[in-house]
Give the backbone structure.
Amino acid sequence: MQRLTPFLWLLFSAGGTVAAFLYPVHVALLGLAFPLGLLSPAGFEAERALLGHPIARLYLFAFVSLPLFHWAHRFRYTLYDGLQVKHLTPLIVVLCYGSALAGTVACAWMLWSFPR
Amino acid sequence: MPESVTLVVTRYRPEQEGEPTTQSYEVPFRKEWVVLDALNHVKDRLDGSLSYRWSCRMGVCGSCGMMVNGEPKLTCGAFLSEFLPGPIRVEPLRSFPVIRDLVVDIGDFLKKLRSVRPWLVREREKPLEEGEFRQTPEQLDAFKPFSMCINCLLCYSACPIYGLEPSFVGPAAIALAQRYNMDSRDQGAAVRHDVLSGKGGIWECTFVGECSEVCPKHVDPARAIQQYKLTGVLRSLLSLGGGR
Amino acid sequence: MSQTAYHPRWHRKPMSVWWWLEKPAYARFVLREISSVFVALFAGLTLLHVQALREGPDGHARFVEWLRRPGVLALDAVILAFVLLHAFTWFHLAARAVALRFMGRRVPDGAIVAGNYAAFLVASAVVAFFLTRG
């Protein structure tokens, strides 16, 4: 586990960078601007077409997967420092990275099998 | 300006009590006095039994670190006027075992400092005939801030991880390891890597950043740690490939 | 705390679970760390979005309607706040993690932070272009 830590940190860093640069605009648009009618979304047809491109799928995969691993790593340490539950390490590791992995696999499957 | 100010000082006399207590002292207020001056006044005039460490009284020896109103400070640089109207709480440095009153044991730090080998490590000593080491201002710039550490341990008191994780080597030790890793004369990065990248090393750090905030010498240990995270990953990746 | 050998007369104060409430800086740190939960939530929301697109125009329309519900809007507002907290703290933290040199001189932190904000604005504009109509 100790030997994996540097690479888990690398994933955490990559995910944090993706989330930092890209999440605010996506949240602002999808979560607030579009539903409140402040801006018009591209619409169902356009979004479907966009996801037809492999680059868009790759983007979305990185967009979902890396920040999930960012959360997993950061949350694990928040549990250690906040709740002082370091003795539950194996459980925490499985829950955190396991969830991130599950999300990643789900995302990969959804994008792989996305209708053209 | 008031005539006097109250200090509320932690007392711990293990021969007569099992838990620390506090004792209040009223000391004269002088605008040029620091907390250390007030403590010396207590020791000289009010209560000779108070125990605490100090030495240079000018912020270079690192001896007089204590918690002042909950913040780790060098008491020789903490002016009474900053804490008016008082009372001013003076407690021993947090996260270290208290031996007596305001005196803490720093053996843990010294052990961890030794473990990072804070000296120039050379594969081969350069004989005198080969001349001196030469260093450009840029090469010096790479490690100079990290060399300013006076081992005052304020950063350890500020770091919640040091309080929570017994194996953590801590900010100053890592900054000093980096001081040598980044020194162009040093060849010891490989031997320091295991300590830095193993249990208790840089990976315990979650970049709270308070260590750098409280450092009186602007060492910025948080920077040293984060920079080694990147180098450390690369080194770990390389060692996977068989290199060292 | 430390690994010093046990000494019967030394006093060690255990660290409270509420240590992070003792100083504003600690509380801000914990808030920053908690932001990762909201990042993960939005990753999940994105998966729901993709799923809605897979289900066809009706499924997508249902998803868009769901996003209009006051509870969901409120949650998204909270997510936005935390995601911005994450982004802005990240831009400043990242500057301390890299030691960049350019033409023999160390690049100052301020320049890296400014670069991060600039890249953030550009990236946001590009994404907005792709996601909005017109």
Q: What stands out?
A: The CA atoms of residues 155 and 215 of chain B lie 6 Å apart. The two ends of chain B are 63 Å apart (CA to CA). The first helix of chain B runs from residue 35 to 46. Chain B has two domains: 4-104, 107-240.
